[in-house]
Amino acid sequence: MEKEALFLKPVFQERIWGGTKLHDYFGYQIPTDKTGEDWAISAHPNGPSTVKNGTYQGETLDTLWKTHPELFGNPSEPVFPLLTKILDANTDLSVQVHPDDAYAKVHENGELGKTECWYIIDCAKDAEIVYGHSAESKEAFTEMVQNGEWDKLLRKVKIKPGDFYYVPSGTIHALGTGTLVLETQQSSDTTYRVYDYDRTDKDGNKRELHLEKAIDVTTIPHVDAKLDIQTEQRDHASITTFVSNSFFSVYKWEIAGKASFEKIAPYTLVSILDGKAELIIDGKAETIQKGDHFILPYAVTDWTIDGNVTAIVSTPPLHH
Predict the structure, then answer these.
(1) How many Cβ atoms from other residues are within 10 Å of residue 2's Cβ?
(2) Band of the pLDDT at 319, cuts 50, 70, 90?
(3) Which of 2, 80, 116, 304 has minimal Cβ neighbours within 10 Å of its Cβ?
(4) Contact at 8 Å (CB) between 47 and 39?
(5) CA-CA distance, 320 to 317, in Å (whole number)?
(6) Distance CA 103, CA 312 (A)
(7) How are strands ordered across the β-sheet holding 192-195?
(8) CA distance 228 to 22
(9) Residue 296's Cα: distance from chain center in Å?
(10) Residues forming beta bridges with residue 315, ordered by sequence position
């Protein structure tokens, strides 16, 4: 097996709330000025990534998962479990909630549930997110939703660049205006909208809400996710572990100089948010820079990064 990183082409999705930051910040060639999402590392049928280098150039990630399972350590999961996105919330996203695996399996044709997390890349000075709600019972929640008492129901949190939020399934949430976020999530496209600010699309239609399902899956009362964020310094790298659980592990690598790594999972997803460096695998070097997304497959047991970069990195669950 070739020891090489799989670099991926972004898949852009237009959204009512999207903007131009994916171009302005990362230099991507975006299709329109309402580009809301870059599906950076995706094997989801609604937007699979394509490999742009090496042995598997032109192959999509979902196909590789099926035809070359050895690249991922011969996994048992039927679908690639993770999805990395960059979101440009030029205006407020709808207030939404996602189901867990068990509920999605029954109600969404076997789709995975959606637990996700956000790393705030950049945001406006007074940016906020919706994270959680104030209702103590399902009755109270339902009543506030039906009466449109959004200010009373929704919890707003001020954010700043570098913040990390864990958003398990069942959590009411929304990104606010002026936020650029890297999202690591289960590979799912199931969203239940609770409130959309009564917005209309270009044809004057409001977007569909999914209140019954949303009320079904929302965690009531809201529980704040407990995080144990740890940072370790080694060589010329600072490595922060944001979360490590049965869905994924997510890290931030801040590298200034030369840092060596050994794999801790069958494969590793890397998104370069800033800077430039050399990625050295098996004595071969290639340049990695801001806006690059790649997977280090199973055969890559160790690698070195030499330069100055900030990256968000994820792996499938580490079986403790």
Answers:
(1) 13
(2) low
(3) 2
(4) yes
(5) 9
(6) 29
(7) 154-158, 128-133, 173-175, 95-97, 192-195
(8) 30
(9) 17
(10) 249
Q: How far is CA 104 from CA 99, 115, 170, 207, 209, in A?
A: 6, 12, 12, 21, 17
Q: Measured between alpha carbons, how far is residue 313 from residues 144, 173, 194, 240, 293 in Å?
A: 39, 23, 31, 10, 10
> Would you state the structure tokens that stand for residue 51, as one six-digit string?
């490999």
The reply to whether 59 sits in an annotated binding site is no
Q: Domains in the chain, start-ordered, CATH in brackets?
A: 9-217 (2.60.120.10), 230-315 (2.60.120.10)
pTM: 0.96
Residue type at 205? Answer: N
Please check the confidence at residue 209 and state whether its pLDDT lies above 80: yes
Active site residues: 193
Q: How many CA atoms, within 13 angstroms, populate the side-chain half-sphere of residue 141?
A: 23
Q: Cα-atom radius of gyration of the chain, to the nearest Å?
A: 20
Give the Cα separation of 45 and 189 in Å (integer). Answer: 9
Q: Is 116 annotated to bind ligand?
A: yes
CA 189 to chain centre: 12
Coil/strand/helix, residue 66:
helix
Q: Is 136 annotated as a binding residue?
A: no
Is residue 165 predicted with pLDDT exceeding 50? yes
> Around 236, how many Cα atoms within 13 Å sit in the side-chain half-sphere?
14
pLDDT tens, residue by residue, 254-300:
999 999 999 999 999 999 999 999 999 999 999 999 999 999 999 99
Report percent pLDDT > 90 for the chain: 96
pLDDT(320) > 70: no
Q: Quickly tell me which residue has 């999207």 as its tokens.
A: 18
d(Cα 284, Cα 303) in Å, to the nearest integer? 10
Q: Which of 69, 160, 163, 89 is nearest to 119 (CA)?
A: 163
